[in-house]
Write a structure and sequence with these properties.
Layout: H1 8-40, H2 44-54, E1 59-66, H3 79-90, E2 104-105, E3 112-118, E4 134-142, H4 150-155, H5 157-176, E5 179-183, H6 207-213, H7 217-226, E6 233-237, H8 241-252, E7 257-260, H9 267-282, H10 287-294, E8 305-307
Parallel strand pairs: 1-4, 1-5, 5-6, 6-7
Antiparallel strand pairs: 2-3, 3-4, 7-8
Helix pairs in contact: 7-8, 9-10
């Protein structure tokens, strides 16, 4: 009987494969541990202070605004469906695993959802001398598109109103809200955007134009630079938002907490991560738990990170 022997090439290949896998695993856990150690340095006092500041008012204003989620060069527009999925989740009864639940829809305003929660106890962490106060969370969830077809939307007069309504709610929220989550396109640094995109003759988005004109970013910077703002947390769930927006937004409002993504982000990742961020806020999660929750469902694309929300304000 002939004895089977594996060719040396395949032996070497399999050895290198397992070496790479082992090395990646080792580096992953080293990075994870380093991240835990960095985040553990945020004292409980700062976490408690962050939530005392966030829940300072009897009613907390949170807004989730879906930008115009076209799929150019295809005609499909998705934000109305993503909004429906988000609403479906927040209307579900609460479980032990999530706080982004148990909301009640307003009978007079289809975009408004409310629920009551217990805010942070007043006093030092672990030594609170006053009981937690009940807070009402007013959550607005808006879409930007009038319908699912981009070409039809461009001909529909209702689309202009829908875009203006979403944009106005977003920009007003920069001054009035406690937290805003934008879920949409970055437009190569020219977003956020709530309108059908400017496209070229080949039906592709004209990213060069957006980078030159910064149609969505400039109003954000102007609002922060020229108007008082009570906003504590801004979530930018759009592709490479860390690179496109983070530095300039923080230069305009240094005390702002941000959630941004360093990479391309799938719609499903953005949807899940924004729900988890809402849950973390309502559950008063501190930095390590908050950070882990942002990527605990799907970590392949977003890498979303929270920064500036728990750190000591200068």
């Amino acid at each position: 009987m002939r004895k089977f022997t594996m060719p040396k090439f395949w032996v070497t290949a399999w050895f290198m494969f397992f070496l790479i896998i082992a090395g990646d695993g080792y580096l992953y856990f080293r990075r994870k541990e380093a991240s835990r150690q960095r985040e553990a340095r945020v004292p409980a006092e700062l976490c408690h202070e962050a939530y005392l500041n966030f829940y300072a008012r009897p009613k907390v204003d949170v807004r989730v605004i879906f930008g115009y989620k076209d799929a150019r060069p295809a005609r499909f527009v998705a934000d109305r469906y993503e909004r429906m999925l988000f609403i479906q989740r927040i209307l579900e009864p609460c479980t032990d695993k999530s706080f982004a639940c148990g909301f009640t829809r307003s009978r007079t305003d289809a975009d408004l959802f409310t629920r009551k929660i217990n805010g942070p106890a007043r006093g030092a962490p672990g030594k609170s001398v006053l009981p937690a106060e009940e807070k009402q969370v007013d959550l607005r969830v808006l879409q930007s598109s009038a319908g699912p077809d981009d070409e039809e939307n461009r001909l529909d007069p209702f689309q202009k109103w829908r875009s203006e309504y979403a944009s106005r709610s977003f920009l007003q929220g920069l001054s009035e809200a406690d937290a805003i989550f934008y879920n949409g396109h970055s437009r190569g640094g020219g977003g956020p955007e709530f309108e059908p995109p400017l496209i070229r003759a080949d039906h592709e988005v004209d990213f060069k134009w957006y980078r030159e004109h910064e149609l969505g970013l400039i109003p954000i910077l102007n609002t922060f630079e020229h108007a008082p703002s009570r906003l504590k947390l801004l979530g930018l769930y759009s592709c490479a938002s860390s690179r496109h927006f983070m530095d300039r937004v923080l230069a305009a409002k240094p005390d702002l907490g941000l959630i941004t993504s360093p990479r391309l982000i799938y719609f499903s990742d953005a949807l899940e991560s924004s729900l988890e961020a809402l849950s973390a806020l309502l559950g008063l999660q501190c930095q390590e738990a908050f950070q882990e929750s942002l990527n605990n469902r799907r970590s392949r694309a977003s890498g979303a990170r929270v920064s500036g929300f728990f750190e000591e304000k200068k």
